[in-house]
DNA sequence: TGTCTTATTGAGAATCATTGTCAATATGCC
DNA sequence: GGCATATTGACAATGATTCTCAATAAGACA
């Protein structure tokens, strides 16, 4: 049974207030900065459980860090991510799901998962001069 | 200037003989097993330079490891990867390319790149009992 | 409300891929 | 051959993530 704890709420609500993806480390830092005291390991565990419950998204940044984001929907979806400001658009694309599914089965693969993310510069960031 | 060394050749040819993606660690292990002596750091550096020269592909596995593969084509493509044995199928899917492209432009994104990889267990590995 | 079971926490150690250090070595150009 | 320097390798260092395990607290139940 999953118990409700102060820490779990703190992590979930902190995550919900952040517009883009954050790392566990950063989230932990922000929580501590605002007075919440909780262990880093707890943040990792809580984020993992949120992902497990489809209440958060996870993705690996180009430099190998795991980033998390509160899900607005629990349905499977993909992302369009601004590599400059981190702004994220959630994407649902049945065509891609079906493509991935049939691709895997055509080649005899089972238990297929897929990673489909699009990175670019959003309209706002495209208009800015280089950072 | 880039110099040709025994180690670079060893890494490049070892990589070329492997059908799928391998980690730097694994490749280093195989090289040592076949008698080549070279440092792990050298394998990392050489693989990075191969990627830099577009002579190798790199991707990050679901568990955060960097995997490398000798490029057979310089054309843009995706992969269907066995998470057990690393066997890889190269995929070209214009539909996905167009989808990603139009998705990005619909949302005002510029300079879009995408990550599209499918992981699963290949037919051979699916037939095996659990490792 | 009090008790009990056990999920959860937290501080720090441990893991593990990857990168940095730097003296020793080897390559390409003359 | 000789030189400048790119490269190597053994090892330390980094850094994110996970593990350990005793202490704590959530929730069920009486
Ligand atoms: Zn942006
Ligand atoms: Zn999908
Ligand atoms: Zn396989
Ligand atoms: Zn593509």
From TrEMBL, chains A, B:
Its primary localisation, in coarse terms, equals: cytoplasm
Q: Which InterPro entries match?
A: FUR, Fur_C, WH-like_DNA-bd_sf, WH_DNA-bd_sf
GO biological process, alphabetically ordered: negative regulation of DNA-templated transcription; regulation of secondary metabolite biosynthetic process
Name one molecular function that GO assigns to this entry. Answer: DNA-binding transcription factor activity
In which compartments does the protein localize?
A: Cytoplasm
User: Which Pfam families would you find in this protein's record?
Assistant: FUR
Subunit and interaction comment: Homodimer.
Q: Which family does it belong to?
A: Belongs to the Fur family.
Question: What is the designated name of this protein?
Answer: Unannotated protein
């Amino acid at each position: 049974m999953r118990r409700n704890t102060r820490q779990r709420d703190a992590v979930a609500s902190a995550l919900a207030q952040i517009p883009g993806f954050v790392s566990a480390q950063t989230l932990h830092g922000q929580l501590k900065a605002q007075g919440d005291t909780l262990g880093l390991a707890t943040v990792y565990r809580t984020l993992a459980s949120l992902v497990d419950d489809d209440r958060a998204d996870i993705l690996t940044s180009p430099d190998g860090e795991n980033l998390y984001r509160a899900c607005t929907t629990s349905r499977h979806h993909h992302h369009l991510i601004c590599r400059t400001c981190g702004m994220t658009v959630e994407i649902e694309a049945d065509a891609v799901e079906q493509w991935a599914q049939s691709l895997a089965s055509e080649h005899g693969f089972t238990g297929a998962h897929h990673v489909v993310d699009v990175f670019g510069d959003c309209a706002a960031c495209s208009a800015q001069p280089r950072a």
